[in-house]
């Protein structure tokens, strides 16, 4: 029986896996790194960038507050006066828990995986609101290029500290690039503003010991797959069914792999049942096949929004492995 790591590599390299990869099983996520304050259920916080986040009770996630009082960046043309990056934590004490976790992972079995969020596109609209960020790409492209460069340099500085301390061989990087039915920007605009940014970021990780780049975008982004390949993404996690995952596998398998094809909204809700989860998992596995595909919910971490969903999805994948391998 292959290890989790071996089975993953056989799957994404077009080899001979002996079972389906079960969701996040190959990634041992190191979540203790000092990446900045993150909002939790029922909380309202302000992070080091000055962005206020709130997560109302009963909702599935948090989001920045963008009224006039809380918006950090009110005028893109004055971003240099309004946006200040927080200091990157460099003390041994701050990194101690993350280092201990990374050192305890069996790298023959799992990938030591660093978690990075939010991404560059998300940072632009976290600072100024989604509407303002999208408008600025059209109206003030030079300032947006400069702001994006500033955000990239900050992540590269964090990446240098993190890779030197944790020596990860996988990066799990968030940046949502679309809605359920379309990307937020056209491929042409994406290639102008965000492809160069991520070529720098993911190029740095690959040059510093990272074997695997897993990028989360639970959205439609089929039109951005060529850019994902160019920037060095190995696995796109969060692929929704609206992308026509089997067609993507047929067209791009061997250049990139796809993780998801089970929309969280149809299995991860208060009235979920094991039968619903198995039905959707079976559909995904049968239509996508054994190679260049990892079945799992489109949700962006290794847990469900409702108790028992993630574990039931694992069980459904085990059943499909017995049926198809």
From TrEMBL:
GO terms for biological process: methylation; porphyrin-containing compound biosynthetic process. It comes from the Bacteria. Its EC number is 2.1.1.-. GO terms for molecular function: methyltransferase activity; uroporphyrinogen decarboxylase activity. Keywords: Methyltransferase, Transferase. The keyword 4Fe-4S does not apply. Residues 116-302 form the Uroporphyrinogen decarboxylase (URO-D) domain. Signal peptide: none annotated. This is Methyltransferase 1 MttB8.
